[in-house]
Amino acid sequence: MPDAITENDPGRTVLFLNGPNLNLLGVREPDKYGSTTLREVEETVAKTLSAHGLAARFVQSNHEGVLVDAIHAARTECGAIVINPAAFTHTSVALRDAIAAVALPTVELHITNVHRREEFRHHSYISAVADAVIVGAGTHGYVLAALHVAHLLLG
Length: 155
Description:
5 strands, 5-stranded parallel sheet
């Protein structure tokens, strides 16, 4: 059921996409990713956006095509996208092309500072089509992304 805030205005919904292994947030390598679960992140983001009259839609998948389909649907159902593509950051031209095709304001997000990690993590196919990139702020980066998207959508 749509949030009452966005029932008649899909442009006030922000799609939050999370790629592979982020369903394990809170238990997977807590020394790198922290102990906050994805559900806790989603609750915090929803409250942050609600304070600005916006709503969030959340999709997490370990399958690239599911994320591409969600991006395509966002074209008519959402006003902006926040994406943590996880490992797909470095491999997915399909996600990059989907984001470019829908032409919505997009924020790329990474919990860790990918530039301080392995060399292969330094390249992102997504950054070139994102309006902003947030890296290394931990799960607080999701709140920063929500606030930035609110700024983009509401001025």
